[in-house]
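Human: Here is a favour to ask of a fellow structure person. Comparing notes only helps if you start from a blank page. I am asking you to supply a protein in sequence and structure-token form. Write it directly below this note and I will take it from there.

Assistant:
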Amino acid sequence: MATIEKHVTRDLAVLDGSTPCSEAARLMASERIGSVAVRQGGRVVGLVTERDLVTRVLAQDAPGDLPISAAMRADLPTVPAHLTDVACLALMRDNQTRHLLVGEGAEVQGIVSMRDLIQLMLDEKEWLIGQLQTFIEGHDGPRVAAG
């Protein structure tokens, strides 16, 4: 199992909690991202995702100028970068989310998405397949003839 450290997106999109949901949606669409961190009082306090905008704004007929702080999830855990992919996926499952903030204590350093974790797992499997092919084909070094 690998840690998520190399798969954390460090260039985190952050908006103030008073930003309208419509502006957050435009940012997500233009940057092709699925979430935005929410800042209040100079620190990240939550995360608003595409799903949050659909379920908490559109489906509730809330106005587009609703502040993102009203639509965000503040209950998501912040995970350390040394956490494993499997542990992150379990947290995503348990918290019904596809994004986790990454950091230590109150300092958020980035974000990891389910897509990032799937890519990490695929990369690991490809490496393992390559190692197995090398072993099966016998390219693990020179052979000494039995004699």
Q: What stands out?
A: Residues 26 and 32 are 10 Å apart (CA to CA). The longest helix spans residues 114-137.
